[in-house]
TrEMBL record:
Residues 75-207 form the Glycosyl hydrolases family 2 sugar binding domain. Monomer. This is beta-galactosidase. Its cofactor is Ca(2+). Residues 251-306 form the Glycoside hydrolase family 2 immunoglobulin-like beta-sandwich domain. InterPro entries: B-gal_small/dom_5, Bact_Beta-galactosidase, Beta-gal/glucu_dom_sf, Gal_mutarotase_sf_dom, Galactose-bd-like_sf, GH, GH-type_carb-bd, Glyco_hydro_2. Keywords: Calcium, Glycosidase, Hydrolase. One of its GO terms (biological process) is lactose catabolic process. PANTHER family: BETA-GALACTOSIDASE. It is an enzyme of class 3 (hydrolase). It comes from Pedobacter westerhofensis.
Amino acid sequence: MNRTIFFLPAGRGSTMVWLMLLACAFVTGLPFSYAQQKDGAAQTETLFLSGKGNDDTVKWDFFCTAGRNSGKWTKIAVPSNWELQGFGKYDYGFKPDSLRGKEQGLYKKTFKVPAGWKGRKINLVFEGSMTDTEVKINGTSAGAVHQGSFYAFRYDISKLLIDGKSNLLEVTVSKHSANPSVNAAERKADFWLFGGIFRPVFLEALPLDHIERAALDAKSDGTLKGKVTIAGNADQLVVDLYSADGARLGGSFKTDVAGRSEVLFQNQYAAVKQWTSESPFLYTAVISLYNKGRLLHTVRHKIGFRSIVVKQRDGLYVNGAKIKFKGVNRHSFWPTSGRTTSKKISVADVLLMKDMNMNAVRMSHYPPDSHFLDVCDSLGLYVMDELAGWHGRYDTPTGKKLVPEMIAHDENHPSIIMWSNGNEGGHNLELDTLFVQQDLQHRPVIHPWMVFGGFDTQHYREYNYGIGNYDHGHNIIMPTEFLHGLYDGGHGAGLEDYWNAMWLNPLSAGGFLWDFADQGVVRTDQNGRIDTDGNHAADGIVGPFHEKEGSYYAIKEIWSPVYIEHRELSTDFDGSFNLENCFAFTNLKNCSFSWKLEKLVGIAGTSSKTAVLHADSGLAVAPDILPLAKGKLQLALPKNWNTYTVLYLKIKDPDGREIFTWSFPVKRPAEIARVLVTENGGSKVEITESSNRFEVSVKDLRISISRDSGRLVQVRNAKGVIPLSNGPVLQEGLNNFANFSFRKDAGNVVIASAFNRKSAYNTLQWTIYPSGWVKMEVVYFPGAYFTNFTGVNFSFPEKEVKGVTYLGNGPYRVWKNRMKGNLFGFWNKAYNDAATGEYPAVYPEFKGYHSNMYWLQVHTTGQPFTVVTDQEDMFFRLFTPKKSDDQYGNLQPTFPSGDISFMQAISGIGTKTQKPETTGPMGMKNIFYDYEKEPGRAKHLVLYFDFRGEAQTLTTTGRKEAGHD
């Protein structure tokens, strides 16, 4: 409805009313002159008794009966959850509540009704209250106790009000319900349990003859159907349709309603723009009620023209296009206010989802705030709206009250394209027919975790099982929860395997990740500590305050609606890329494509930074590629493109939103290593040996190497010791280096082990150059057919590390089954001991695996040291991240035993419900066939070390550049 809005707080008089009338006209998309010319008495006018969200609250009198700050009258912000306001007791759904049945909130609020409302019907509306809510006006009951937290309900209080005087509103809210089925559906759940009036409360004034309800169904062909419920006497209904710019489409549609309390209408509109998640075009339907030419009442609804069809054993179609959902589950939640949110939060949530290239969201596990659906309508997200029921369900009498409340409240939002009757066993099958009866649009109804309505909505199925259903099943496969995130596991880890299978199989309708944000509560009873109830609520892609974890960017790349086929920039690269258009409705000619070439320089030292030495950029002609088609993008690169370090390709959608930026290294590690590593330096390399060590010196550098193992014992220069030692140690390989000897070779000193096929088939060689650079070369065989990782480790005291600067992929760490989302370039990372999903958070995390290393400089409390490789696909690992409490032991984050490692294969990570290997091939252990102990089949690992401790400029161009010394 369109509402003329008044505010109760003192000091906001006629000026505020005038401004809100203007805002109302703007929101509805109608010109202000149209809003002005309407009879004010024909509008539904609204008076807020509370604020409208956590950023706009009003103080009410409050009395908490148990827990903190109980037993006394005081003040509380409304709307709010009282726990976050310092009252009662925090409860997570899994834990027994010691105050169950005792914790209530008693509210009081006085108000006056505007004089102009006399003679109208006045409703008292609650958008949401947890849980049983008893309401009195001036000491008299307003009606039956409402049971059910997440549903808007109203009382007709017209006869209970005192004209021209203050009225007293008294509300008693019980945190737990007297109805066992309500507790089973809402309270016994895997999420935080709160109490209180957590959504807005307002009065609405309607003419005695008015429109009670207008259910609309706008189809993609321009057909608009409506079912309008009328109270009082009227003889005519008029329907007008306006576009976002205020232009009216066609003429007014009129129909006779004399003597009828319900009327069905249908009209056809030409050349309407269809609503989709990619192009969320909205219109405003203005429905007016007349009697003998006099306007009685007008309501307005934002609508979108779109059609939803489920084709059994095929898929779900929107406007004739088959949709694959790139979706996420979302709770209504904010860490400082619980389930009380705001329009600002809704906008931020939807923008983050759109930025991750998602097109759908599931309302888990209850209907959301109105403003969230408004934002989904306007920004474009497909919505699955859900009746509450985690593992328990409402009984039939209760459900028969709540289903109509949910549908009447949400039905006209074009973003809602399906209903969910509960979650994971919280399905009351007797309520299914209600959805059909109540919803004019007859949107599909599903039962998450069940096979129902032609959908198999399996939760957390292993990759082989789930993908097997695609290959051998008959239902539409649409997991409403999959890849259950926990800390750094799940979400982006495993998604690439799942999505590749989902995309290619025609029975797949995509799926919904669990879940959007960590539900971390700022505990008012624990000095503001952010509490996720251990591992129960740390399931998000983003943190409680929307902190972005590594999976955020992996999802953004994997779910890009423009797929770029793998491309190597070889010497004959012609600037072309093969593309696949994964949009459902958008031609790629409406997107924008730009490229940038950069020559990079890293400025080393304690205040390391990076810079772009030179760049070239340009726009590309957007290719004409239809949805689901393939084609080619051509970049007009300069002839000297191969003198640069990296090529970036950025794609934006038709609205100018960045889909993703891809990076393609132009230079390979061997080319960079040739620039950085120098062998000649004019200093003589000396070596002495003792019974247990080789002692090598060049200029001020002293290096000690064990004669028995070949490991680094100590590194010292003129400034002191660099405490890198005890390496290389092969990980998941046999450290059988033996029979070391040294030789001098063209001014270099070489220390090498001897190869023995039976007992010493792994070999290690050190080369110390006159320049002071040190080369380490390991030829080795992985220790088994299946390995978690392969590579070498070194020891280094963690307390002495301040940070790193590196050339490679960053800035986030990676796992074997989460390689996407990073960019190639220079990155600076300060040391932190952050654990993903534990707070306060620091992102990106410092510890863990990092990919595609070219060059690494470690900054310490003493002096830095540098490591370079001339090999592709090298990982470096920084220490071992904290292992958080893993509920089922499925994450299995596996790391080498040393402190700093250089790896040629790394491990994956699991999810809350799956081990790494069950998330798909990328999560499985590494497989090596070359287990024959033959030198020609061994793996080869090369590193170059600079231990001179000098601040230096590390370029990728082959020369020192002025201004970067």
